[in-house]
Amino acid sequence: MASVLILMGSTSDWPVMQAAARMLDSLGVSWEARVVSAHRTPDLLPTTMQEAEQNDVRVVIAGAGGAAHLPGMLAAFTHLPVFGVPVPSKQLKGLDSLLSIVQMPKGVAVGTLAIGEAGAANAGLLAAQVIATTEPAVRDKVIAFRATQRDTVLTNSKLDLDSL
């Protein structure tokens, strides 16, 4: 099994959650994605987390929209770090999801990222950073990614205000 398990409540969450997969790919981290619904398949939550633990998954990224119970419920069934990504909803644009994920009770930790694709990408980056603590090849790729970001900013830092 992969180092990172990306879970989502519905296939309709994939357009957002694939940003996590792309980030993990770029940093050389293996991943697997699945659909497991906190509301429609609650019986799969404990077995999914047991399987993840048995197969050496290191981090779980869970995307959820609306009521967004998936990240918290997964965290209740595992000792693995769980990062929650609020998926934008039609009605409240993901604010409902963000508040649901971030308001975990004391003792059930879920790292909560930004709403949407930026949050998913950062969840992938954060998962890679966790893995980088014990895998030098991933650490080197994370460091290179940061250097590229820095170089891009420096290259674009000199504005020609007259041309704006």
Strands, helices and their partners?
Elements: E1 4-8, H1 14-26, E2 31-35, H2 44-54, E3 59-65, H3 70-76, E4 82-87, H4 95-102, E5 111-112, H5 117-132, H6 136-155
Kindly provide the radius of gyration, computed on alpha-carbon positions and rounded to a whole number of angstroms.
Answer: 17 Å
Number of helices: 6
Rounded average pLDDT: 94
Q: State the end-to-end CA separation.
A: 50 Å
CATH class: Alpha Beta
Estimated share of beta-strand residues? 15-25%
Helix content: 40-55%
* Name of the CATH architecture: 3-Layer(aba) Sandwich
Order of helices and strands: EHEHEHEHEHH
Q: Report on the biggest sheet.
A: 5 strands, parallel
Q: What are the low-pLDDT stretches, counting only 5+ consecutive residues below 50? A: none
Gross morphology is: globular
Strand order of the largest sheet: 2-1-3-4-5
- Please tell me the total number of domains: 1
What's the count of strands?
5
Helix/strand class: alpha/beta
- Which fold does the CATH topology refer to? Rossmann fold
InterPro entries: PurE_ClassI, PurE_dom, PurE_prokaryotes
Keywords: Isomerase, Purine biosynthesis
GO biological process, one term: 'de novo' IMP biosynthetic process
Organism: Aliidiomarina sanyensis
State the gist of this model.
Catalyzes the conversion of N5-carboxyaminoimidazole ribonucleotide (N5-CAIR) to 4-carboxy-5-aminoimidazole ribonucleotide (CAIR). This protein is of the alpha/beta class and 164 residues long. It has one domain: Rossmann fold.
